[in-house]
Amino acid sequence: MTTQHHECCPAHTDPTDQPVTQNRLSQPDPERSPGSADIEVDRAEAEEFLELFHAENPQPGPLGPRIAAVMREIDMTGTYWHTAEELAFGARVAWRNNARCIGRLYWQSLQVRDLRTVSDAGSVAARCFEHLREAHNGGKIRPMISVFAPESPSRPAPRIWNEQLIRYAGYEQPDGDVLGDPRYRTFTSKLIQRGWRPPEFPSAFDVLPLVVETVEEGPRLFQVPGQAVHEVPLEHPELTWFAGMGMRWHAVPVISNSLLVIGGVSYPAAPFNGWYMGTEIGARNLGDSDRYDLVPEVAKRMGLDTSDEATLWRDQALVEINRAVLHSFRVTGVTITDHHTESRRFLTHLEREERAGRRCPADWSWIVPPMSGSQTPVFHRYYEAENQVPNFLADNEAAGRALQGGPPAFR
Ligand code: ARG
């Protein structure tokens, strides 16, 4: 599976970096603390979801009594508790509805960890590290989601600040250059202000600590244990000097600041992963000029003529970086997919969805891979665009915390 940046599968990062959805958590009333959960669950959304669940799952018994019970529960508590089956179905359909994800063919295989009773920062962090190990699965990556305590009127849900469970620090140097991932330069310096101590000898691939915020504890930092971090050192099948550049990437992309919404219930802490599509790393994380910006360096080492754009030195270097990524994951035994294979699978997914009588929302600008677009079949058509729920939503405040390192959700 694959998305473009935050949601399910950033095949590329959102080109504009603009959240697609409204922030469903923020309240117009400035007196209320942002993120506090004094919002009743929308009854119509709850009912619509229960209908969908019962339409696609005949086993769980009659719909009417379940809707009545949920309405009573909302009357009394302002929210309701999904059954384990509703939760698992809702999470899978949230993936199925994620318009940015090219990797949705396997949506039914998502493993759902029901961790709704877990809500203190230390336990959330520990379960996230467990998620990293279980999802890595010795290299045979399993699509997985861990669903922590939901938002509720009696207690706001925990928040994970990081965009993904594993991200690399970006250290601003005195000359303005950044060592590491420039995307996280502000996040990194804010965490240092909050007391994080980077390694004695900082490198371009230092894993940032996890920040978990709860209403009782405020933001707390947790170092990701080494056994939870699996990485792939990058080498090239022919260019022997490539390995000497010391590049690597983490094996599992676990998006951790996206808001899962099922039947009107919000789950702000619900980290989920698929496996990588090579271009996410090779074309975007390593290729973007505001990320690791590897293209000029690789072109130089390849001896290409960089004095004239028309030599297409950028394109040539980009292809070799992407070959290195796919090759290295393969020889390391870590699941990865290429953009040609994944594009064909996505068309298979669309056919299946159509046969099932469903509409499949898709965003062309996210689905088309960030290199060789016209060589992939997903380029040559249009898609349905309307949003559907359940889904993973971009929450503006969460997006801000992931890049700016604050402000906290609860103050
Ligand atoms: N594009 C993001 C990254 O490079 C990952 C987004 C999720 N990708 C995925 N294949 N599930 O880290």
Question: What does this molecule look like?
Answer:
The structure is a single chain. The chain is α+β, with helices and mostly antiparallel strands. The protein has a single domain, classed as Nitric Oxide Synthase, Chain A, domain 1 (Alpha-Beta Complex), CATH 3.90.340. It has eleven helices and 16 strands. The protein has helices spanning 43-56, 63-77, 84-96, 121-136, 185-193, 278-285, 295-302, 313-332, 339-355, 364-367, 396-404; strands at 111-114, 144-147, 159-160, 170-172, 178-180, 210-214, 218-222, 231-233, 248-250, 254-255, 259-262, 265-267, 272-273, 276-277, 336-337, 391-393. It has a four-stranded mixed beta sheet with strand order 1-2-13-10, with helices on both faces. Strands 3-6-7 form a three-stranded antiparallel beta sheet, with helices on one face. A three-stranded antiparallel beta sheet has the order 12-11-16. The chain is globular. Bound molecules: arginine. Arginine is lined by residues 1-5, 8-10, 103, 164, 253, 255, 274, 276-277, 280-281, 285.
